[in-house]
Amino acid sequence: MRQSSLVVVANRLPIDDSVAPDGACEWRRSPGGLVSALHPLLRHTPATWVGWAGGTGPAPSLPDIGSVRMRAVPLSGEDFRDHYEGFANSTLWPLYHDAVEQPEYHRRWWEAYQRVNQRFAEATAEAAEQGAVVWVQDYHLQLVPGLLRELRPDLRIGFFLHVPFPPPELFMQLPRRAELLRGMLGADLIGFQRAQAAHNFAQLAAKVLELPATDRRIGVGDRVVRIGAFPVSIDTAEMAALAGRPDVAARAQRLRHDLGDPGHVILSVDRMDYTKGIEQRLKAYSELLASGHVKVRDTVLVQVAVPSRERVTQYQILRDRVEREVGRINGEFGRVGEPAIHYLTQPFDRAELAALYRVADVMAVTPLRDGMNLVAKEYVAARVDDTGSLLLSEFAGSAAELPQAYLVNPHDLEGLKQGLLSALEADPADVTPRMRAMREHLHRNDIRAWARSYLSALDDGGSLLTHLAPTG
Ligand code: ADP
Ligand code: F6P
Q1: SS3 assignment, position 409
Q2: Which residue owns the Cα nearest ligand 2 atom 11?
Q3: Is 467 a catalytic site residue?
Q4: Is residue 370 flagged as an active site residue?
Q5: How far out from the chain centre does Cα 57 lie?
Q6: How far is CA 265 from the centre of its chain?
Q7: For residue 130, how far is its CA from the centre of ligand 2 (angstroms)?
Q8: Tens of pLDDT along 371-392?
Q9: Among 25, 173, 398, 451, which has the highest number of CB atoms less than 10 A from its own CB?
Q10: Is 298 exposed, middle or buried (0-12, 13-18, 19+ CB in 10 A)?
Q11: Rounded to an integer, what distance in angstroms lies between the CA atom of residue 373 and that of residue 363?
C-alpha cells in the first residue's frame, strides 16, 4: 500500500456504501457535520482517509476519490453494536451533550471501544509515511492518539473533537475516565470547538491525571501537549455560489409557491437527534398556533429531520414522539391542502438544501447542546441578498460566533416562543445589518481558515497548507 504524508482518521469514510460495477465511487455527503466540514478541504488535497465504510463484515477495497486514498477499517456486527451504537453513541454522545438523555455504562462496550480504536490505530500506522501528519477526528476515536504514538512515535498527531467536551462534574461519571484522557493526550495538539471545552479538559487532566495543565498547555512526561479552540466552519463561498445560482433561485421560488405562497416560511434542518431540541421547538410552535400568534395560512414550518442511528432505542423513541406530535399539530391546526408543518425525513442534495435555505424567512436552529451546528452557518452563507432571520440556541457552538442571530434558551419555552415571534416579526431594517455581519464573519472564517489555523499550529505552518486554496 502507498503511504501518505497527511492522514485523516475519522469514524466514517465520506463515500457511499455502494461502489458502481465499473469500480467508480462517489463522495457521499452523508448528513452530519464531520463529512460536511472535511469534504471541501480534502477534495483537492493529497491525503489518505482512514475510516469505516458503513456496513459490517470485511473491509471493502475502495478506489481513490480525486486526490484522496480511501482506507477502510472493518467493523463486525458486534463492533457496530458495542462500539458505534454503544460506547460512542449511547455513552459518550449523551454524556458530552449535557446528559440530556441518560448515558449508559457497560463494560462490554468499553472493550469494543478499545478494540476498534486499536484497529484504527494499526490501520493508520500502516498508511502513514515516515514523519507524516495524522489528524484524528471526534469522540469515536479518543484512544487513537495514544495508541498511535506507541506504534509510530515519528508521527505528528493532531486530535479534533467536533462535539462539546463536558464539564468535570459530568465527565467524572465515566468509569474509564483516566484512560480516555490519556488516549487524547497522545496527540501533539488537541482542538476543541470552544475555549470552555479546552478549559474543561485542562481541569480534568490536572484533577484526574495530576498533570501540570493550563488552558493552552499540558505537560505529559517530557512532552508538551497543546490544547485550544478552533471553531469548525463551512465552505462559505461554495454555499453562497450554490444559493446564488439561477436554477437554485428558481427552485426556491417554486418551493414557496408549493408551500402556498405564505407570508412567512420557517425552516429547521436536523439529524433526528435528541440533542437538536426538535420536540421543544414543536411544542413552542404548537402553543403559538393555539394562542393565535401564528396562523397557518400566513406561516408554515418546514421541518427536515433525517433519521440517524436508527437502531438505538433513544433515537427510535424520539422519532416516534416527533412523528406523533407532528401528526397531532397537523390534525389540530392544519386545513385541507394546508398543513401547519411540512415534515420531511429525506436526505437532500446540496442544491435542494440551498433552495430550502433561500426560501426560509426564519431558520430555527435550537439544539439543547451542539458542538458547533453547521446548518446555522450554511443558512447564513446561503442568504446572498442579506435577508432572513436566524433563530439560534445559546447552546450551539456557533452562537459564540453569530451573536447577531436571535439567541434563545431552548429549555425556556416562553423564551423560545418569544424568540420565534421576534424573528418572524423582525423589521427588515434590523434583519439586513444582522445578516450582513454574520455573512462577513463566515466569509473570513470559513473551512479553509479553520484548517489553516489548526494545521499551522500542528505542523508549524508546514507544507500541507499549500494545497488549501485561500479564503474567499
Ligand atoms: P451534526 O454534525 O450533529 O449532524 P451539523 O449541523 O453540524 O450537525 O451538520 C449537519 C450537516 O448535515 C450539515 O452540513 C447539513 O447540511 C447536513 N444535513 C442535515 N440534514 C440533511 C438532509 N436532510 N440532507 C442532506 N444533508 C443534510
Ligand atoms: O460530530 C458529530 C457526528 O457524530 C459526526 O461525527 C458525524 O458527522 C455526525 O455526527 C453524524 O453522525 P453519524 O456518523 O453517527 O451518522
Answers
A1: coil
A2: 32
A3: no
A4: yes
A5: 27
A6: 24
A7: 30
A8: 999 999 999 999 999 999 999 9
A9: 398
A10: exposed
A11: 13
